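User: Show me a protein chain along with its predicted structure.
Assistant: Here is one chain, sequence first, then structure tokens.
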Amino acid sequence: NRKVVPLLYAKYRTDLFVFINQLDIKASGNPDPTQFLNANPNRKISVHYTVYSYDAKEINSGLAEEEFDPTLNNPRKIIDKHFSRIASTIAGRVNKQLTLASKNER
């Protein structure tokens, strides 16, 4: 909803807003998580996101993914190690898009 972003801007006074549209943690390499034969045993975090500017213009959107060891079951460790990588991926993409937009304005 394009009306939400200006309301958030009025409250938080920031230029960019990241919305997580979907978050999945699943077995990777095989559509059936009970089947490990001939498949990558790692699990995968998939984050679908959209980034908007303060005036509700879409800056970037996409899917950021990160694989992790299937024996890692501690939520805090998964968040600390792997979600920071996803955040870095998203930030890198947004920075690249903002740099391209800035060059195009010149």
